[in-house]
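agent: user wants the full assembly modeled, not chains individually. Plan: 1) parse entity lines 2) check alphabet per entity 3) run joint structure prediction 4) return tokens. Steps 1-2 passed, two entities, 460 residues total. Proceeding.
--- entities ---
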Amino acid sequence: MTIQIYELCGADQKHLFSPHCWKVRMAVAHKGLQWETIPVPFTEVAATEGGDSRRVPVIRDGDNVVEESFEIAKYLEANYADKPSLFGGAAGEALSLQIVNWSVVTLHPEVAKLCLMDIYKALAPADQEFFRTTREKMFGCTLEEFSAKHPKNADGLTKALTPLEMTLKTQSFIGGATPLFADYAVFGALQWLNTTSSTDYLSGDTAVLRWFNTLLDMYDGMGRKGKLAA
Amino acid sequence: MTIQIYELCGADQKHLFSPHCWKVRMAVAHKGLQWETIPVPFTEVAATEGGDSRRVPVIRDGDNVVEESFEIAKYLEANYADKPSLFGGAAGEALSLQIVNWSVVTLHPEVAKLCLMDIYKALAPADQEFFRTTREKMFGCTLEEFSAKHPKNADGLTKALTPLEMTLKTQSFIGGATPLFADYAVFGALQWLNTTSSTDYLSGDTAVLRWFNTLLDMYDGMGRKGKLAA
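--- prediction returned ---
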């Protein structure tokens, strides 16, 4: 059976950039399951799977519909227990939540500072309007003001990645010798930037960049696709 | 057999404040092992257990001497495998390292900003001299300049704790239903502040404070001792 993953898309339906959707796609691939992407633009997200206030990612797996990336990861772990684990046990699941929260709180704002306008420009007109209205309310200023406020260099992101750089100097993945969901959670944040910006903000001889490239190459180089066409 | 834990102390040998030493003491207590503290002032740390450049914590367990808190946790896990786990498996150990690194990189500087002068004042004269020389070299300014630069309020620390607050709204401990080494690692950072400062920087109705108080009460309220006498 093929799992359907509803994923946020830009004006180009092949431009898949949502960090949370990338987490789920990597998790489904990790489990070795068949899947297909159903691209959803911003203005159609709420109505996904007959909902009225949904947020992507949403997956349909047969009769089951599951929303929110960590919930989906837990669903996959429970329902495909014979496939490679995403958490490595109950303790690993609990510890993963802290790493997921660190990524969302610390890395996501740094990525948003760098590529908010790039996301906006890559959307279809109706989605641009939706994005502008919701984000300007969230930030309390215009998209242009938000973008102008933040210099377009990697300093903030690099600083936020310091704990990860330390970890990846000791072990290949956050999960140890092989990746776990915690890796995909952090990968999602950086893939959000990678699929949207034409600037390579990750550069230099860093453990983070080596790790990120390894993850991009996994699962038939799945992460190399979905990038905004230059 | 009693494990000896060499722990950093102030002018008062009962004032035990090192975050890394607290991690180890909590880990030893978690394993239900007998231990005793050997207090070591800054100027005697390097020579611990016949060394010349040691850093505490160091433990002696029979013929084994182990240094550095994460290495000690791994030693305890491997050598007392029948006792409650500190990691919950190999994945948990790997994931814990990222949380340890997050704590050191993100929380430790915020704690240092708040209580550097308190630590200094609590040391014996020879240790004060050592502390001043090493820290002023590290910070590139005098202790007094460093302290004056940073306002004595909880804003920076509270912000740094945001991912943890999110996690502890969902589950009782970083480790899930019960604490793991990752909990003790973060506890150590906050206990460094708690044992040294007379100001309660953790306050209000927060999940972090409830969690911290729970950990302070564990193991016969061990964390309630070691605080600088008011």
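agent: reporting back. The mean pLDDT of chain B is 96. Chain B has two domains: 3-79, 90-223.
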